Amino acid sequence: MSHMDAGVPSTPGKFKSEKPHHHHQRLLLRWQHSPLPKFLFWSLFAGAVLFSLFLISPRSSSSSPAGHTHSSSVTERRFLRTSSSSSSATWGGREWEKRVRSSARVRRHPFGLTVLVTGAAGFVGTHVSNALHRRGDGVVGLDNFNDYYDPSLKRARQALLSHSGVFLVEGDINDGPLLRKLFDIVAFTHVLHLAAQAGVRYAMVNPGSYVHSNVAGLVSILEAARSANPQPAIVWASSSSVYGLNTQVPFSESHRTDRPASLYAATKKAGEEIAHVYNHIYGLSITGLRFFTVYGPWGRPDMAYFFFTRDILAGKPITIFEGPDHATVARDFTFIDDIVQGCIASLDTAQKSTGSGGTKKGPAQLRVFNLGNTSPVPVVELVSILERHLKVKAKKKVVKMPRNGDVLFTHANISLAKKELGYRPTTNLNTGLKRFVKWYLDYYSSSGSHLAKKGRSGHGSSSSS
């Protein structure tokens, strides 16, 4: 019985009323048996429940102390805060446009590039932006400074870029008007799209952030590029994670990538399919780069080598995963300088897009490359190298790898990148970690921050770049 039946007896014959009310009674009974009121009632009820949940749900990580990085806070971090959402920062205006144009000015003629780098305050983005600027290319950065990990590290990278003369625009890749404005101001020849929600395990906490950044964000960038005149060539960061449950080694671009092991991997695979569509329909020249576990100075604090370093120095135990039957977990660790070389080679060899004003004029270039080191190293060996460079013995705790989307190993076949890009990684893990440790000790001692308070966001990932 619905709540509307409460005022009507189950035996209408005993219900006494004045004659004028008989008509209203028949209308009421008709109303009760109609499906419309029930539909309206449950619609309103569901709406009220959803509205209540909206009011009481966590809106951002602002309920946690700034810089709070313990894994216990992970379940509260379903919404990432950005600089634009937590301040009154805006874009636009004559001075802002002047800074954009100045940063985009090419100083290398006649073959200089003008590149929009998204995720420029990120690990790879900072290094590539600096390298492009150093050789005389025009570079404009874009980043939303979200708090997936400590934003102060991103601000330090921003200061590094600013000192070099690279202007970093604060904004989101899903902000269509901002992207259109940037393309109106500057005729970008290339877009290096590195902005993404990274990490494997955080997807179990905040899946929406991966769809927002890695799928919707990529579409937003491609929409802006295909509407631009001239259209830029696109180079973007995919991931080695797309190989998922593939067991053929080393991983080759020709291997199947239709069995992702994580939501992160699935969004990157979706990105590769979306790139194909925009290349096919609009004539955008697009190159996808599958990064293999990038590490080095200014790296991401959610990566294993980074928070292992922090915890070893703090005297805390570190967790090392192993697979079924004590199987070894290994990664194809790739030093940042080698990745930068691959990114720049991809930009230099990218052909022009063939569309104009969103209309395709002919076939356009579509490529995908592995950028790895071809030398998988067991994670236990990574720890041994860190112990040697830190001169501290780690307290190790070996546990079974949880079912969180990580894979046992990655191993890149880079023959295609060697042939097409001239890509040749030169830094082994020992040398690369030595340089990382030097940077880490210099950075955290000079910043005046206690080592135990920095470096990790609690969403550790050892497989993605």
UniProtKB/TrEMBL annotation:
The lineage of its organism: Eukaryota, Viridiplantae, Streptophyta, Embryophyta, Tracheophyta. Keywords: Isomerase, Membrane, NAD, Transmembrane, Transmembrane helix. The chain crosses the membrane at residues 39-56, 111-128. It holds the Pfam family Epimerase. It is a multi-pass membrane protein. InterPro entries: Epimerase_deHydtase, NAD(P)-bd_dom_sf. It comes from the Eukaryota. Gene3D superfamilies: NAD(P)-binding Rossmann-like Domain. It comes from Apostasia shenzhenica. SUPFAM superfamilies: NAD(P)-binding Rossmann-fold domains (SSF51735). This is UDP-glucuronate 4-epimerase. Belongs to the NAD(P)-dependent epimerase/dehydratase family. Residues 115-351 form the NAD-dependent epimerase/dehydratase domain. It is found in: Golgi apparatus, Golgi stack membrane. One of its GO terms (cellular component) is Golgi cisterna membrane. Residues 61-73 have a biased composition (Low complexity).
